[in-house]
Every structure is written in structure tokens, then in C-alpha cells.
Amino acid sequence: MSMQRRDFLKLLGLSTLVGGTGGGAVFNVLKPGELEASTAKFKSTSGRTWAMVVDVRKFTPDQYGKCIKACHREHNVPDFGNPKDEIKWTWTDDFEHTFPGQGHEFMDEALESLPFLLMCNHCEKPACVRVCPTQATFKRASDGIVVMDPHRCIGCRFCMAACPFGARSFNWRDPRKGGFPMVGDKPVIPNPEYPTRTKGVVEKCTFCPERLVLGKEPACVEATEGSGALVFGNLEDPHSEVREVLGTHYTIQRKPELGTNPRVFYVIGG
Amino acid sequence: MYDKGKVIVGLVVFLGFATFPFYNNIGKKSAVPEPNLKTPVIEQMVVKKCIEPKEIMRGEHMQILNQWRDTVVREGERKKMTIGGVEIDTSLQKGCLHCHSNKKKFCDACHNYLSVKPYCWDCHFDPKERDV
Fold this sequence. Notes:
The complex is a heterodimer of chains A (270) and B (132).
Chain A: H1 5-18, H2 20-30, H3 36-39, E1 50-55, H4 61-74, E2 91-93, H5 95-98, H6 109-113, E3 116-118, H7 127-131, E4 137-139, E5 146-148, H8 158-162, E6 169-170, E7 182-183, E8 186-187, E9 202-203, H9 209-212, H10 219-223, E10 230-234, H11 241-248, E11 251-252, E12 264-267
Chain B: H1 4-25, H2 40-43, H3 54-74, E1 80-83, E2 86-89, H4 92-99, H5 107-113, H6 120-123
Antiparallel strand pairs in B: 1-2
């Protein structure tokens, strides 16, 4: 049987619309209203959604380093001493890079040069989760934190491209070879209770599920204990400390225009 | 065929070399691995037993570990179990290796014999060798 090119294309278009997996997607996009993925609200199964408030006013200059060190020690985050191979779970940046487009030329100069503590935002609608082909990164149904399952990660780095906050790092090298100080031929691992990662997987801040399950707060929050610089708690409980701070202060999120709805909030001033 | 004699002799010598490992080992027993169960924790157990009978553990510990991984990492459930009076976590490091604190004489004994190289240890740590 011979077929004209034109007929073949017609048939192809029709079959995409009518049957097959493509059809559903086409109808979904053409349907009036918003896409389901962009409107669905997250509802936790346990009545807990973890969130954090970074109170920039209460941070003392040495506290940033303390938080980062506590986090990186706890989770065996390697340091190769070279920005190309850098692995970071928590880090700092200035106003312009943290809140692009939210400043202006007459802004308080002190604010412009102030560092801001950054980490994974544990977004309500995480872009990284949508793109992950193996569900290695997923939003935990019980409490809404965005977790990594390194066993499943195939190192495709789609999540790194998708995350608008640069919260993800790729292991270009084996962390146990050069990522930690060495004694003889053995790396000194800061916390042998927690695994390292391996070459070829992505990693990021996880809001410390291994600590949450024991009723403890994340490592960075513990490092600022008593100062109120980091407040961690349940967003669904109207009487939680987090909700109290959010309800009584003006707080901002990173890149709200992207619609991922970060669960890390910042108190800037006032 | 030219050089028939040389070719046939060559073939016989080659086959002899190639099959040497097989006929050399016929009827011989190689050292069967014996995983060592003598560790301080196991010695002190009231009843010496694992989470499942020996035969199941031998054949299916990898599937059990995969299940544990999913319940802990994906479902966030870190249950504690009491086996023979010893409390353990659902964990390779804090569960299995809590009792079997002799990775070299326990895990590696069979894995090396069967030439399996599980990549658990690329990320997870084995506790310091402690056996009695």
C-alpha cells in the first residue's frame, strides 16, 4: 500500500488527538482554565506541613557560618575546596541574588550587602519533583518536605535545571576521595551515623527528616537556638511559632512570581 | 589441509589449556564461606535469632533491605524492632550492622565468594570490626 505524505501526516495528527498518551496531554493543554498541576493545593496526610522563617534582623554575623557548618557536618557534605565541584545544602548570598527584582536603587545600603541564609525552599509546588524521571526527589505526603532518595537518583540533573533557587548540587566526584580531610588513606567523616553520597547523584537540603522523626528540629535551627533567627514549625497549626511570626511580621518569599510557593520565609526588617 | 599434524597438536594443546581449570577442580570442594556470627551483641542475645529464619535471610536479605529502604526513605517510617532482646532500627547501619558488627567476616565472606559487589558501602558506613 502506498500513502501520500500528506495523508500520513493527517492520520498521525488524528491518532495523536484521539488515542495514545499524547491525546490526553493535548486536551489538557487546550482545556479552558488552569492546568491541574498549577492549582492543586498541597494537603499533608498528618496535619503537619513543615516551614521555616529566617529572621534576618536577629542574625549575628557569626551565625551564618555556624548554621552552614552544623548542617554540613551533620550530613557529611563534602568540601573539595573548588567552586566547580562545590556541594552545598545551606549557603548565603546577597539581596540582589536572593530576591531578584524585589529591590530598588534607593534601598537601604545595609540591606544590599547583608548576607541571607539560603537552603532548599521545600516548595508547595516543587519544580524539581515534577521533572524527576525516577521520583528520586519527591514531596513527602505526610509533611510536605521535599526529600531526595539517592538510591533512585540517576544523575540526569533535570532537577538542577528546574530548581529556580540553585538549591541542588551534583556530585561530580566521589565525596570520599578529596571531599573530606584525610588521615593516611582514609577520609575523616564528620558524622559516621549519616551516609555520604556517591559520585553521580544530586543532593540538597532535606529539612532533616532523620531529626524530625526523633522530635528534634533541623540542624541549622538547633545551631541558632535561643536567638530566634530561625523559626521552624508546623504551617497547618494556627498556634505554632512559625504561624505566629508569619502572622505578626511582614515576610517575603524567594521568587514568588514563579508560583512554586516556597515554604521558607524571610523577615527582612521592621 | 597443510600441516595437519601441527594444527591438530596445536588444537589439542589449546583445548588442554582452556579446560585445565575445569578438570583440575573436578571432585574437589572449594572453601565454602562460613559467615561469622560471633559478635559481642549476638553473644549476649537471650535467644539467638535474626528478624527472619536463616534460610529466608540468606536468600532474601536484599529484598528485605529494599523494603526497609522504601519505608524509611519514602514513607518516613523508622520503626524500632526488638529481636531476641536487642532493640534495632529499620536501618542497615543501625539495624543489621548493630548485631552483625563484623562486616568483613559476615557480609564480605559470602559476597566475595559469590563475587557480588553490593554498592551499599559507597555511601553507608560499616562500623568498626568488632568480633569476639
